[in-house]
Amino acid sequence: MTRPPLAPALVAEFLGTALLVLLGDGVVASVFLMDKEADWIVITTGWALAVTIAVYVTGRVSGGHLNPAVTLALATRGVFPVARIIPYWIAQITGAMAGAAVLYVDYASAFLKFERTYGITRGAMEAGKLAGRADGGAGIFATFPAFDNPFGSLFSEVLGTALLLLGIRAVTDRKNAAPGRGFEPVLVGAIVWAIGLSLGGLTGYAINPARDFGPRLVAFFCGWGRSVFESHNSYFWIPIAGPLIGGILGIWIYDRIIAPYLPPETEPAPPGTVAP
Known about the structure:
The chain has 276 residues and is mainly alpha-helical. The protein is built from eleven helices and two strands, in the order H-H-H-H-H-E-E-H-H-H-H-H-H. Strands 1-2 form a two-stranded antiparallel sheet. The longest helix has 28 residues. The two termini are 35 Å apart.
């Protein structure tokens, strides 16, 4: 396969991740800052649609990674150049920052009204945590755990990202029951939706280091300061480490347990047929 030139691929990763964060964090802002209803269903659906749209926009130029965990996992398979890992990560993180910055400008008045309504002082901490609803407003940008259990939170992020990569490999593997390139982004979005609905409540299911770290940096510069990194016992590293580990694990499971036993792409495998 001919790889696209690096520069257009990086622009696509930047744009796609910006779009992902703008729409994904945007639905969180709509729910918490504007008091829209149906909280979790709306948030998980909004993120799923954000992923779908972003992958459609960028998939044919950069591969539509939009996630350092995806980039690293594909590199461990030998299907993505190791030399492109860091440039892709930089494009993804800066794209996430750009998306979060545009969101902040767009919702600036809503942030101020939210803080006045709930008596929130931006960046204020109580008992080691950001004080106020939606984690003091910083939860619009970054994820925070439901429980003070670092190991449990790390496990949840590893698990969620492992399932993400397992699902992505399945729907993009031409030897499997792949739906075709035109429908793949929809199913990737559906995978994100399923993970959010089923497992996301514990940590906010970052499952993407750029999606969490980039907006967290924007929150740092927009008045929340060091609190976004210190809150919840310096939780910020878990949405980085967990997805990177989980992505490798998920793709390894698929490549070791499923892929070796698939029939050739040209050979149909009717549902219910089991090889002797």
